[in-house]
Amino acid sequence: MVSMEEGNGDPTRINKYACACAIVASMISIIFGYDTGVMSGAMIFIKEDLKINDTQVEILAGILNLCALVGSLCAGRASDYIGRRYTIVLASILFMLGSVLMGYGPNYAVLMTGRCTAGIGVGFALMIAPVYSAEISSPSSRGLLSSLPEVCISIGILLGYVSNYFFAKLTLKLGWRLMLGIAAIPSLALAFGILKMPESPRWLAMQGRLGEAKKILLTVCNTEEEAEARFREIKIAAGVDENCNEDFVKLTHNTHGEGVWKELLLRPSPPVRWMLLAAIGIHFFEHATGIEAVILYGPRIFKKAGVTTKNKLLLATVGVGITKFVFVVIATLLLDKVGRRPLLLTSVGGMIFALTGLGFGLTMVEHSHHKLRWALSLSIAATYLYVAFFNFGLAAVTWVYSSEIFPLKLRAQGHSIGVAVNRVMNAAISMSFISIYKAITIGGTFFMFAGISVVAWLFFYFFLPETKGRSLEEMEAIFSRRTKPRNVGIEIQPGK
């Protein structure tokens, strides 16, 4: 445990214990990122070994996300019922089972079964890791700690690309199976490691377990005053009298997520309706702007640009992983200093520029009868620039934003709706990219993504208020119609 003295009494200082908890919770995202990254290279060898066609490759790539859609919707209710911590354990077990099946993979059917099992685990992981991190962190460090899952995804993707490069040197039958199956080992270790973590104090308060919630808050806050202030806000949000000093209270309202769907979808208040629109919108545009095409089909894109050998294709893809990791770390460090909106708008603006350059470069290569070295260089540079801008803002902000904006009672299942939309769009891009570029050319496809990015920029500008530095219990006021979106997060005018 970390004592309050170690925090030096400064409420703005990152609490070491809270940081350690967020890191452990986020490590499940490394396994998900690895699975995504390693599949980009493994598909080259799977297609050759199992003799499958492009349609089967698309289904194999995208089915994980359709299953993650189911997982994310189940995870919202599960995390309200069994707690945030045990939901992470469940995700780890599902990952492990999926990895074992994919590593065994004697045929396409077993491979698909493993991919689907891992996909459900992905849905659980993507929903729960940011929510847990947001609920255990203080407002001054929430952006940093809630974006750690995205950093871990980037680490995992990079490890997957590196694994592709080294395991590709093994025999055809063994190489891709080791690429996919090795993820079972960290999944098992993580399932045991997470049991050492504390439960979310906000979830404990929802169950009426106030004594346990306060004890955990004293370890994840730097001062007793900060812990008391957060505890009062949490009690009010959970429907408990802020002056209550009981260790356990029996709450009269539902505490396991019952009735939440009605409040979210059937009878939402105006602020909740706005929150839901913001969460769905940011998750929709994260993948509608084409990142999965680059992450999953990077080798194909570089091949279309003019890179020929498998080793060079895999090395170029490793460069994508390194770029992703570096820029998502930069974004993570800036989230609590610069704010969500500036990073988001800068990120999407840069993506528009990079996607236009990539579309132009690939179009020139495709319509040329001889090798254009400048177009190849432009395509590779634009790909790296696109990945850099995407991770500089949109990648990190998406998960932080949708995990922090909903009220306590609606948070898990509200965030799960955003994750479900995220997985639908991920699946849509994964399973249609090859078909789309065959229909409108690969250059035309990236021009299309550039156009979608323009719409995304406008949506973010008009509909996403700033949330930097605000407590989770303040979000309903921020999303009130009383305050204009562009000014929210700066000043809430009282009495209006």
Automatic annotation (TrEMBL):
Residues 21-468 form the Major facilitator superfamily (MFS) profile domain. Its main location: membrane. Signal peptide: none annotated. It is a multi-pass membrane protein. It is found in: Membrane. Keywords: Membrane, Sugar transport, Symport, Transmembrane, Transmembrane helix, Transport. CDD domains: MFS_PLT. One of its GO terms (cellular component) is membrane. The chain crosses the membrane at residues 21-45, 57-74, 86-104, 110-132, 144-168, 174-195, 274-298, 313-335, 342-362, 374-400, 446-464. GO terms for molecular function: carbohydrate:proton symporter activity. PANTHER family: POLYOL TRANSPORTER 3-RELATED (PTHR23500:SF453), SOLUTE CARRIER FAMILY 2, FACILITATED GLUCOSE TRANSPORTER (PTHR23500). Belongs to the major facilitator superfamily. Phosphate:H(+) symporter (TC 2.A.1.9) family. This is Major facilitator superfamily (MFS) profile domain-containing protein.
